[in-house]
Every structure is written in structure tokens, then in C-alpha cells.
Batch of 4 targets.
Target 1
Amino acid sequence: MTTTETRTYTVPTRDEVSASNQGIFDNLKKGLGFVPNLYAYFAKNETALGDYLTLQNRKSTLKAKEREVINLVTSQINGCRYCQSAHTALGKMNGFTDEQILELRKGSASFDSKLHALAQFTESVVENRGHATEESKEAFFAAGYTEANMIDVVIVVGDKIISNYLHNLTGFEIDFPLADKI
């Protein structure tokens, strides 16, 4: 490969992954109706898919809707079109409108003061690599969040950074309806 050629990253099929990952593919297909390309790409590594799903599915002090706020804000900041698209679909499943999702991606939630504090805190955490502003931290706690919630925010941000970076590195096909660019 010359320095001017671009490497192509492919998503493996069920037949191209290990037996343990094939079992995970089968469970994903049963539960979701398909195996998202992001999950399939993790299966190129023997243990990464199972490890990632364990992280994603851990018990949390945050509600699903709150986790989607974090996912949308983080994916927007990191410029991950795959995750923006996936979490737009998941955000709608969790009751957000198209307009609310676009606003959340910009780090705001004028429609809900508690979610606004969460979005602002998440934005500050991600943009400042964990050195969130005192103002965003105080607004987060004033909105009713706890230190246990803060830990979960950081875990969800970490989860999303993993998937954002993986897609940003590879650019494999987005298999969700494409999110609007903002």
C-alpha cells in the first residue's frame, strides 16, 4: 500500500467471526433484528464485542433517556456520524423529537431543565477532557444529580468515546438512517 492509498475497513459477516462472537451475533439479531455494523466490527477482536456490550449494558443510576443525552452530545463533539445516526434513532425510541435531538447534539435542552444541566455538563466533560467547568458541575448537582450519577456520566462518555473513535478511525458503512449534519 502506497502512502496515497486509503485503507478500506470491512465489517465482518457472521461466518468471518469466532464461534463465541457468532453466538453474540445471534443474540443481537434476535434482540435488535440485525447486527449493527459497529458491533460487528468489534467482533474482529476475540473479546472486544462481549466486553463492549457488558460495558454498555451495565446497571446505571441514569435513565435510558439521560444516557441518550450523553451519547448524542458526546458523538456530536467527537464528529462521529455513525453514532449520531444510531443515537438519533435511539433518541426517538426514547421519546425525543427530531428538534430535541438536534438541540441535544448542540449541548442544550431548553425543553427540560434537568436534561439541560446534563447536556451542558456532558459537553464540558468531553470538550475539556474531564476538566469540566465548575459552573457546569454546580449546575449538574443543582439539577438533582449526585456524585454516583457523575460517575455514570463519565462511564457513558467513555463508552461513547470508544465507539466514536472506532468509527472515526475506520469509516465503515452507517447502517442507520443518516443523522442530519449540524
Note: The two ends are 35 Å apart (CA to CA).
Target 2
Amino acid sequence: MNIKLTKVIFYGSILLAGIFAPILFPAYTFQLALLWMMILFALTWDILGGQMGYNSLGNILFFGAGMYICTVVQIGMYYDVAEYTAHFGAVKVDFTSYQYFTGIATGLVVAAIACVIIAVIFGWIVFGLRGPYFAIGTLGVAIAAGELVGAWDYVGGGGGISLPNYPGGPADREMFFYNLCFISAVCTFVFLKWLYSTRFKLALNAIRDDEEKAEAMGIHTNRYKTIAWSFSAFFLGISGGIFGNMTGFIEPLEVAFPTVTFGIFMVLMVLLGGKGTLWGPVIGAVIFHLIKELTWTYLLGWQWVALGALIIINVVYFQQGIMGWAQEKWPELFGITLDETNSGTEEKILS
């Protein structure tokens, strides 16, 4: 069968599965929406962690920032935010359908752009660090952001914010947010597939392999690092705005800046699927989400033990991830040929 036709069938099957999944399994619409969000998490984390070799533990910063920025814009377009979020004497606000949909659309756009600006600002600071210091520095920024928002009464402080109610029935609401999660994940994948086909990926890989040599070759490493982080921030900002509205209530530590859950999940999904590949994060996100949902449902109380065991197995036996393991076992399926060298050893060459 023609390779192009095979790809069309493959991608078409995934799109059809994504479209019809909530129709075939309506009781699991929220879990399916969360799956697409997990795929987005993994894809965006791999831009830095896999392609560039900078293991960030603070990408959750953009998720939380996008959530709060989108919420403030949604409310602020029509009502006073401070009055809306006041702990005592708060007004009861009913948003019309027009106000709700224009608010969320504007909020998502502003959240994405604002998160890019945040990435540029903090990039000047954290990209002066390398190795484990970069990971710890980004983690510190994310934790500090959660604590600062928790002390900011204007956005509800530690008490959180109840978001505007969706102007429709429960089934319509679930489908609306499922479609948003599905579209955002697909757009992220398509954008990264295009990005990785350009010279931008070569620059990121050069930084990963040897940053000093990359600089000596004339690559503006700080520029590429900042742009790459901005791409992650853009899509994570959108996902934060969607997730905040999907849950209906946000607060700083457990929902907006959950460093010990979503922040760690991002890293684990990529490690499971395979760093530095396009499909590795997707595969890792799907497998991880299935395991997470099963353990949270049937092994409640042992879910963290199960996830800890998954991490240990991954690190000890699958350091290259599932995609890396598959490429070694079936290289011809990934366009990798083995040529005999003069010394009789085999050398992998990407076709």
C-alpha cells in the first residue's frame, strides 16, 4: 500500500475516533476530554525536555496562569472582578449565552498571548541555568506563582473562584469542553509536526547535544530556547483556560498550579513514551492516562504506589521510552536502515 495513503488512513482513523468517542462512550466524556489534555501536556513538555534537553519542572506555571488570566478576562468583560471574587457579600451573577461564549473565546486568546509574554520574561531569568539547576529553578517559579496567587484577594486568594455557569444542559456542556480539548490537542500536534520538519528542530537538537558547540556554530541559543518555551506556554495557556471552565471552580494549589500531579505527569508521560519524538509523548500520554484512571477507580488508596512502580519500571527498564525501544527492535518500521561499516559493525542511518 502507498505510504501516503497509509498515513491518510492512519490520521483519518485517529480523527474519526476522536470525533465519535464521546458519542459511543457518553459516560466517559470528561475522562476522554482529559486524555486529549494529557496529550497536549506531553507534547508541549517534550519541546524543551525532549527536543532541546532542558528538563523543565515548571511548565505548570503557564497552565495555571492561563487558567486565571482567562477567568479574569471572562468575568472582567462584564462585571467587577473584585466584587465577583469577594469572600463575603459576593453578588450572584448570571451570564447570558452571548456573554459566556464571547468571554471564554476572548479569555482563551488573551491567556495564550499573556502566557507567551510570561515565558519570554521568565526565560531571561531561568535560561541562565542549566542541568538540574534549570529544573529546580523552573519548579521554584511554579511553586512561587501558586503561593502568590493564593495570597491575592483580587482573584479570590486561597478561596478560589467559581467560574460562570455554562448556558446549556450537562450533556451539551460536556461535549462543548470535549471538543475544545480535542481541537486544542490536534492543533498542538499538527503545529509541532510542521515545526519538527523545519530547521528549528535541528537547532533545538544541536542545543541538546552540545550547547557550547551550538553557540560556536552561530546558533543564538537563548533565542531558540525562549521561542521554544513560548510555544509551550501558548498551548498550555489555552489548556489552562479550558480546564478551569471545565471544572467550574479553580483555586491556586490543587487546580491551577498542581506541581505534584499535572506538573509531574507531564514529565512521566514523555519519559514513558519516549523523549525527543513526535509520537512518543502521545503514546505515553494515552498509556499513562489509562493506567491513572484505572488505578484511581479500582485501586483507590494505592494509586500513588502504582504510579511510583510505573516510574521505577520506566527508569530501570525503558529509559529510552516505548518509542525508543520500538525503534531499536523494529528500526525498518521507522525509516532506520542498518548499514555494514568497514569494521564490520552496524551503524544506524536515518533514511
Note: The first helix runs from residue 3 to 24.
Target 3
Amino acid sequence: MIEWIAILLVGVAILTDLMLIVFWRVNFKAYPQEGSEMPVIAVLIAARDEEANIGACLDSLLAMDYPRDKLQIWVGDDASTDTTWQIMSTYAAKYSNINAHQITKNITLGNGKANVLAQLAQQSTSDWVFITDADIQVPSQWVSAMLGAVENTEVALVTGTSLVDGSGYLAQIQRLDWLYATAMLKVISDIGTPVTTMGNNMAIKRSVYEAVGGFENLPFSVTEDLELFKQVKKNHQTVNVFSAVVLNKSAPQQSILELLVQRKRWMRGGFELPIQLLGVLLVQAFYMPAVIILILLNPFFGVGFWLAKWLLKFVFSSISAKKLKEKVSLFDSFVAELFTMAFSLVSVLYYLWPGKVYWKGRGY
């Protein structure tokens, strides 16, 4: 009985990856890489203890091909304990379109990042609000391509693509994990059921942002980007752009513990996702223990099913990476799959372990 349940769970996981490949081929939607209009835009960044990353982030924003007189960069220091504020203020003194602020009051319901973004949005003036993270580096066409996806449409929110970028196998494993997840979000969006956005790569029309009340009026959530998306999606259109010209590169988590803390926060927010995506994620979550049980009960079937699932995941990741002008190594994919088998089980145990969700040293 247990063996058949395990086979069923693994079979559903395999079928899910097969469907992802089919829908990718049939329904993928591409968008113009730039629009004819260039409105004033504001990029908002919340930074807390980001001395290692904030300089590179600001440099990448300044290097974009968007007109400097229409580009506002608003960065808020969220009570950093390192030299983040000093770096930010130095950039602000040198570049007139960079505005640096120390955030000292709370106007939201607890989420530190949302609190910073809310206050930066209140101070900025623009037609569109772009949001990214302090550990991100953006491509030169980021703003132009994101706006190109909404020209002559009623779209109110655009989601770009992000991948981890860094050296070492832990960074590479995170890169492959992000690639699979973001490509899956693209498939779900393109079949007409978008479910979330990405807080390190998104743009929202200011009029719509203000209509939903801004971050300061959203319910508390450890995933503030998802909460904003849910409010926007009620009455407005959204699109997901999957392209190299909107590909933001994120710094990786540096240790297994940091990765566990990050995943616990994401998993907490994951239960707020719509049933379409939550169902897919639960299938993937149950797949790992199911395939381990199957390998123990019937090694031949267990290993065979595991290899089939891995190969389908590799194919899906490879065709997704090609859209981003990236590559996926067969060997790296295999190593990442072995790591994922162990890490997924540890992640579940860590999530269930009593304790708060942490972000940037704060517990929620």
C-alpha cells in the first residue's frame, strides 16, 4: 500500500514536469524589449546591512540605458549596523538622481522591508514604481524592457526574472533552484493564472499602487511582494516577462543556515499562494520523501522514477535557461538534485521547528 502511494506521488510529480515542458512550448508569451514612451520612473530599494552589495546595485542602476533625467533611485537604510548608510549617502552626494534616506519610523504592520518601501514610495514622484533588492544587479535594458511589456495595454504590474549569481556549488544550486521556480511561475502566468510577483524584480503603475493603499495599508505578511500582488490582481492585469533583458542577478546565500532561514520565510509566505501554485509546490514537496520511500521499498522502480523526474526537470530547466541566454550543466543539475533531496527534507523539519521567521536579523 505504501509503495503504491509513493508511486502515485512520484508519478504526479513526473507528470507535472512533463506538463510544464508542454505548456512552455505551446503558451510562452514574449514581449517587446522596449517601448516608444519613456515615463519618469522611480526605483525603490530597501537596504539593511548590505555593505557588500549596495555599491554594485547602485552602479548597475546608473549604468542602465534609460534617460538619467527620467530615472529616480530611492534607497532607504533600514537601521543597518554596518557601513551601508555611509555608502548610500556617498552615492547620493555624487549623483543627483539618487536619494538616500535613513528610515527611523514605522508606518506598516511589522515587515521592515515593506516599511522602507512604503516611505520611499511616499516621497518619490513617478508614473511607474520599480522595486528591486540591495543585493541585485540589473541589466542595462531592465527598465526599458519592463515598460515595453505594458505599452498599449491595461497591465498594471510587471514581473521580471531573477537568478542567483555567484561562485561555488552552493550558489550554483541556488541558481538552478531559482531557474526552475521562476520558469514555473512563467508557465502558470502564461496560461492565464498568474499567482505572484518577485519583490526583487517588479514594476507597478503608481496609480494602481496608490489605489490599493500602498505597502502601509496592506495586511502584515513576511512576503510583502505577494501581498501587494494579491491586492493588484483583484482588479488589474499583470504579466510575467522571462527574458535576458530583464534578468536581475542576485547575490547568493552564503551558508546552509542562511539558506534555511530564507526558505522558512518563503515557505511561510507560500501558504498564502493561490491553490494553483500551492498545489504544484506541494506535489514537489511530497515527491522527495515519496521517492526515497520508493527507493527503499523497490530500488529498481525508485531509481528509475527518480532518474525520469530529474531528466524532465533538466530538460525544462535547459529550455528555460536558453530564453535567458544562460546554460545548465548536466553534471551541475545532477549534483543539485542530490542536494535538493536532502535539503528539502531538512527544510521541512526546520520550518516545523518552533520559532520565528527571520529576515535581516528580525523575527516575525
Note: The chain has twelve helices and twelve strands.
Target 4
Amino acid sequence: MEDLSLHILDIVENATSAGATLVCISVEEDAERDILEITVRDNGSGMDAKALNGVRDPFFTSRTTRRVGLGIPLFEAAAREAGGHLWVYSQPGRGTKVKATFEAGHIDRKPLGDMGATLVSLIMGNPEVDFVYESNLKGETTSVDTRSIKKEIKGVTTITDPAVLKLVRDVVNNPEP
């Protein structure tokens, strides 16, 4: 995958496939420690111990449509290539948390990518799921919560309206200092 936003897209798609109705994405950069941290948390079905132990194996998947599951292994490889780590926490019925760290200035760290387009794609493909996106990158913060947006637009339009999606993309891609 060319950038980290595509890894996030893949992890979130796994969450929605696992029945998540709320997915929280956090992207934070700590310049003092030279760390970029990405966390994806969901309230999906979670994984039992067997699935959690196999999640890093590219030939393990719970899907029936294919026999490989490359999302977590590729995300972990991206983290390790950039001097970081990946952790997966999960409990059946309680959801999953995937956390990856990267040396922010590492020469092999992939670019973050277009998080606005990633979030818009997730909303379009899963309008029934709520997403919370928060970032703090170089002192610029962004926060998008589709629950709040849905409340504001109720009775007027839908979360997948092109004007709403453009606003979401603009807010994510143009954070405020």
C-alpha cells in the first residue's frame, strides 16, 4: 500500500465487516518523541484468542471469500519498516483496537495520505456506521464525528450528500492550528 491512509481504510473495513457501529480513528504526531501514532478502535464483534493469535499470519483470515488476510500483516510491516510497532487488542463482544507507531521522521515511513478521501470513502460505503476521526499533526487538530453531523442534518439531507462529504473532506484535509 502506498500510504498509511490505505492501511487505515483496510483496518476499518475489517471493523465494519465485524459489525461495528462506531469506529474511532486517531492520528497523532509527537514531534518531541518523533512518533506518529495511529489508533483504530471499534465496537464490533471482537476476536477470540485463536483469531487474535492468528491475526498477524497472512494466511489466516475469518473471511470465507478468500484464504488470506493481509491487512494487519501489511500494516505491521509498514510500522516495523519505519522503526515502529503494531498492537492488536480484542475481546469477543467488546470490539477491537489496533494501534501502530512509526518513527515520524524515518526515511521509510510511508506518507499519511489523503485522510479526507479515506474518511469520505468509509462514510459513503457505510452510512449506517458512525465514525469519529481525530488528528493532531504538527500542532494542527481536526475532529469529525458523524453522530454530530447526522444530528445537524437530520430532516434536511443525508450523511452521503455530496455537499456534506465535501465538507468532511475539507475539514479533515485542512486542519486548524
Note: The longest strand covers residues 22-30.
